Amino acid sequence: MKKPVAMTIAGIDTGNGAGAEADVKTFEVFGIHGVLVVTAITAQSTKGVFGILPTDPEFLRKQIQVLKDDFNISGVKVGMIYTKEQFKVYKEEISDIKVKVVDPVIYAKDGTQLIKDVDEYKELVLKDSTVITPNAVEASILSGVKINSLEDMKSSARKLKEMYNVDYVVVKGGHLQGDYSYDLLYGDDLEYYIGYPRLKEKNTHGTGSVFASSLLSGLVKGYDIKYAFSTAKAIVYNAIRDSLAIGKGIGPIDPFVDVERSAMKYKVIQDMIKFADFVESKAGFYKLIPEVQSNLAHSIDPSYVRGLQDIATYRGRIIRRWDTKVIVNHPPVFGNPTHTARLLLSIISKGVNADSLINIRYDEKHITCLKEYGLDVIEVNREIEPEVREGTSMEWIINYVSENYGKIPNVIYDKGKKGKEAMIRIWSSNIEELIDILDSLVDCNS
Predict the structure, then answer these.
(1) Where on the phi/psi map is residue 371: left (φ > 0), alpha (ψ -120 to 50), or beta?
(2) Does the structure show a pLDDT above 70 at 389?
(3) Is CB count within 10 Å lower at the N or C end of the chain?
């Protein structure tokens, strides 16, 4: 198996939020092998930068030469380069690499200056790059154009392109005010804005590194510049949305979050196939299925759940045929607003570590067996449910139980009301446990 190879030239962030480590992690998201050239070691945490130890320029040169001699480098992402002596080494050693994405990290999140000799940096590092990716503050410093609007972003980008002979300029507008955060991709005959709703997450450490390394990764993989840009923007947005609340300061974003979600969803589907095999083969399971039929709701890790899009159910329910045979109507699908999915989402929203839920037929024998199994069981009187808009009954059930009992038990049942079949709902923290509960319940009633 072969992978493309990309190089990052950047500092080491000992807090593992930005810099070379964030770049290599991001390369891996794209299936790219990352190699790193270390320009400095920082003493850094989420609270800030407390020291910088630059790499000797000749040792910097040695790192680049050793890697170029061994690997076919498809592109380089440049972050922190600290001294003018390092700038010269970069210019001399990297000129033959065609794709160069430069993130001009002039200042760290805490205001620490990360480029000492800005004028030399402009000439030796920025000039002749493929893409440069300053934020609005950095773009203002480098271009001399004060940025307060989208039009200012365009003026700055145009000037930067002319000044440094780069193919493309990305000006990131996260530092500007407004309900949306806009980034601009600017090039010859190209002016392309992307806006996302502004997130209020405080943990944004590493956004510049992840964006630039995502953009380079897209180009290395053969994406056109607009698609590479939009992909990088989406990855950073999701990485901020699911950023890591760790440390005592500004926590890092998580570039792996989309990969993690995809892996979790794959596991959910495999779990649901296994669950379907169980219910279709378990003798007597038909006794648990109500008139309205059953359905399983199964989520990714509850701490990652943001809505129904993270919860899967069977498209056509679990049904009992006339001959008592149980059929699961595949496939599992995410985002289907079934009762079970909405109920599970309501439970998760209360902070409960629940990832599986099924509805089964009400029978007093079932209640007795579930109590004997050791589960907490609570009855809800649906007759007192207020008249509410369609689709909010499940939320009401969970709010009622939480407010009146101070907890959400594993079994919630009701005896129905006019137009509503009596029902038992069982949730669990993992699919294996839910299978065991249902297996025992069938045997208990046989």
Answers:
(1) alpha
(2) no
(3) N
Tokens of 194: 């992307």
The rounded distance, in Å, linking the Cα atoms of 109 and 48 is: 7
Spell out the alpha helix ranges (H) of 253-360. 257-281, 339-349
Q: What is the DSSP string of 292-312?
A: T-B-EEEES-GGG--SGGGEE
Strand partners, 434: none
- Which residue is listed with tokens 């989309």? 258
CB 416 within 8 A of CB 382: yes
- CATH homologous superfamily of domain 5-255? Ribokinase (3.40.1190.20)
User: DSSP code of 251?
Assistant: P
Q: How far is CA 115 from CA 41, 103, 111, 119, in A?
A: 14, 11, 12, 10
In the predicted model, what is the mean pLDDT of residues 23-40? 97
- Tokens 């007093």: give the residue: 364
85's tokens: 């002596």
Looking at domain 260-444, which CATH architecture does it have? 3-Layer(aba) Sandwich (3.40)
In the chain, the N- to C-terminal Cα span, in Å, equals: 54
Q: Over 80: is that where the pLDDT of 86 sits? A: yes
R_g of the chain computed on alpha carbons? 28
Mean pLDDT of 395-411: 87
Does residue 421 sit in helix, strand or coil?
A: coil
Task: Give CA–CA dist 300/354, Å, rounded.
Answer: 10
Calpha distance 254→25 (Å, rounded): 9
Bridge partners of residue 75, in order along the sequence: 6
Mean pLDDT rounded to a whole number for the chain: 92
The confidence score (pLDDT) of residue 184 equals 95
Q: What is the mean pLDDT of residues 390-416?
A: 84
Per-residue pLDDT, averaged over 192-216, amounts to 93
Query: Where exactly are the structural domains of the chain?
Result: 5-255, 260-444
Q: Which phi and psi angles does 44 have, rounded to 5°?
A: -140, 145
What's the pLDDT score for residue 388?
64
Distance of CA 339 to the CA centre of its chain: 26
SS3 389: coil
Token pair listed for 257: 């979050």
154 pLDDT higher than 60: yes
